[in-house]
Amino acid sequence: MGNATRTAPPRTGTLAAGVTELGEMAKLGGVVVWMAVRGPWDYWRDTRDQMFLILQQCWIPMAVSCTFFGLGAPGLQGGNIYALFGMPERLGSFFIMASIREFAPWVNAMVVAGVVGSAITADLGARRIREEIDAMEVLGVDPIRALALPRIVAVTIITGLMDIIALCFGLLGGFIAAVPILGANPWAFYNSLFANLTTPDIWGSVVKTTIFGLIIGVVCCYKGMYAKGGAIGVGRAVNQAVVVAFALIWVVNVVFTNILLGLNPEIQVFK
């Protein structure tokens, strides 16, 4: 009778568990930001090495992805619509919305999350199941400062900086679609692009992508540092980290874009 009335423990897939986990991730992010701005700043050597590693791993797949994504979806599809009205040159103004505001930051974040985020989760998860993190805590070393802080700062900074490269290759894909394929005048394409390009478009894109990097770093470090269940648990943590990072990026992208457009209504007027 007693066994029949016993309450089962909540499963990890429940809504309450998910909300609790998001709260723990937010707490980790707050702790890391406080450590980063408070100092001491002895973590910069590890951060620099992590940034170089991220750039080495990501810039080629990111450049290829942005170029062909820009060539395919907004380039050829959007360009064919403009060509119906005899103005393929106007594709330059369209790419401010399509590439600079939306898909270049998004593709950049997806590549970083898939390549670097999964590697961070796997690395920290392996350290957890080998009890290296437990040993650090016993020795009085803060694993958040030693392991999570340089990785999160590196992913945040380099993801924002790589957005500049992503924008360039995204616009390259649009140029290929407009000029060689659809026959647009190249100088008219440039004129349409720069006549509508504004400062809020650029800083909004970089700031948004930097926030994406912070989300990726926090989520992947949290999932790795608190992985459990052996090697299978580490694999599960990697999968969950990438999925959660993707979902949070999509939500933040919608919120940030609406705030940007609301605060700068003039960028919605195309010349």
UniProtKB/TrEMBL annotation:
Transmembrane segments annotated in the record for this chain: 58-83, 103-126, 152-182, 202-222, 242-263
Keyword Glycosyltransferase applies: no
Keywords of the record: Membrane, Transmembrane, Transmembrane helix
Membrane recorded as keyword: yes
Signal peptide: none
One GO CC term, this protein: ATP-binding cassette (ABC) transporter complex
GO molecular function, one term: phospholipid transporter activity
Name the UniProt record assigns to this protein: Phospholipid/cholesterol/gamma-HCH transport system permease protein
Species in which this protein is naturally found: Nocardioides aromaticivorans
